[in-house]
Amino acid sequence: MPQIKVVIVGAGFGGLATARALRNTPARITLIDRTNHHLFQPLLYQVATSVLTPGQVASPVRGVLRRQKNTTVILGEVTGVDKDNKYVFWSDADRENVPIHYNYLVLATGATQSYFGHKEFAQYAPGLKTLVDAVAVRNNILQAFEQAEAEEDPRRHRDLLTFVLVGAGPTGVEMAAALAILVRSTLKSEFRRIDPATTRIVLVDMAPRVLTDFSEDLSNTAKLRLQKLGVEVRLGHSVEHIDADGIIVAGERIVSKTVIWTAGVAPSPAGKWLNVETDGAGRVRVQPDLTVPGHPEIFVVGDTASLDQNGKPLPGVAQVALQQGRYAGRWIHNRIVGGAAPKPFRYFDKGSMAVVGKGFAVVQIGKIRLSGFAAWLAWAAVHLQFLATLNLRVSVFVQWVWTYITGQRGSRLIVKP
Ligand SMILES: Cc1cc2nc3c(=O)[nH]c(=O)nc-3n(C[C@H](O)[C@H](O)[C@H](O)COP(=O)(O)OP(=O)(O)OC[C@H]3O[C@@H](n4cnc5c(N)ncnc54)[C@H](O)[C@@H]3O)c2cc1C
Q1: What is the per-residue pLDDT across 187-214, written as a single tens digit (0 to 9) for each?
Q2: Number of DSSP helices (H) and strands (E) in the chain, helices first
Q3: 3-state DSSP call for residue 307?
Q4: 3-state SS, one letter per residue, for 91-118
Q5: Which helix (H) or strand (E) holds 139?
Q6: Closest residue CA from atom 6 of ligand 1
Q7: How much distance in Å is there from the Cα of 12 to the middle of ligand 1?
């Protein structure tokens, strides 16, 4: 009997969880990703603010799955799916639209940045989705200090040392606080013409409060903490314009050479490849067993899938992707070995967490609300646990302890291609 072929597209949280759940399955599994690494996105902001190096938040997929003999990893960009004939098409550096046949397909291609219809903002306000983005943001931040130090005219220092973050969700809040710590501790004594502590950090969001997914009290706690760190929090107004000189919000121009976008996400084109029903945001509407209607062999998981639970769409967070990936893997395994059908997918919400500067976090788990150092310890433990490999866990733990004690960061290099 020919061996069953499972193709997984995307080695993020969802795709990697699917592959791992299929480790003992008698099938030939192919995992395709356009990068060679599994990226731990929740810590990207720490690369952007120089706490961690890129190598501490990502691991080569091939290395992560080195013991999984039934799985082949391919570095390639998927460009389309022929769902009637069961082919996926991928391209790499020297070949285009190479077909690969599947019996089961799992699409776990995540999300990209959304500028809410203002694509022109992208060139002035880079987002934070990939390692390349994080290094580019780090370059921009460090470069701004270098330019200011080299600039004789003190009137220009203010513009160069104003950083604007658009989006007060977890990434914007964590990033603003980390930036405030960077300028007030690590960089403080290293410049002669400028005082990094005078840096202006502005966090902008159209929502009436920061961290809208958290309870109102935790959201207020986070806002107060940000303000204590010197971050200007501007809420209730959307950004009207972004250009090379900064942003316009509520009719006021904020002059800045460094604007960072953390506001919106748009799903991958999986819905277009499949030509199936999507939700308003473009995510593929899946059935309760995570398959696509009419195609029980195609699963879509994670940020690029849309599924309601208790009347609300599931959030685009790592836990949803992980749990859906595991579920899809087990379901495919059972179908191949003749096991029972699982119950419909149900997301188990383990809570939300965000760090707001050194040794301070807010944590919400069901009715439990926590803020401060204990919450930060919980945040640190959870994030270490979910890093893909043991060497990353050890390396990040050591770096955090070192940074906590000395204020020194993992990498403050400006590395341009
Ligand atoms: C900066 C940031 C911070 C975040 N912080 C948190 C947090 O604190 N807590 C939390 O729970 N969630 C957080 N999230 C969200 C979380 O990371 C996502 O929900 C999660 O990564 C979704 O997993 P996924 O598998 O759907 O997609 P991803 O993890 O994004 O993986 C998608 C994979 O598909 C690959 N891919 C995409 N398109 C193609 C293609 N055409 N061909 C081949 N490969 C392709 C990509 O390279 C990637 O490896 C954060 C996200 C970001 C960007």
Answers
A1: 888 999 999 989 999 999 999 999 999 9
A2: 11, 27
A3: coil
A4: ECCCCCCEEEECCEEEECCCEEEECCCC
A5: helix 131-150
A6: 42
A7: 6
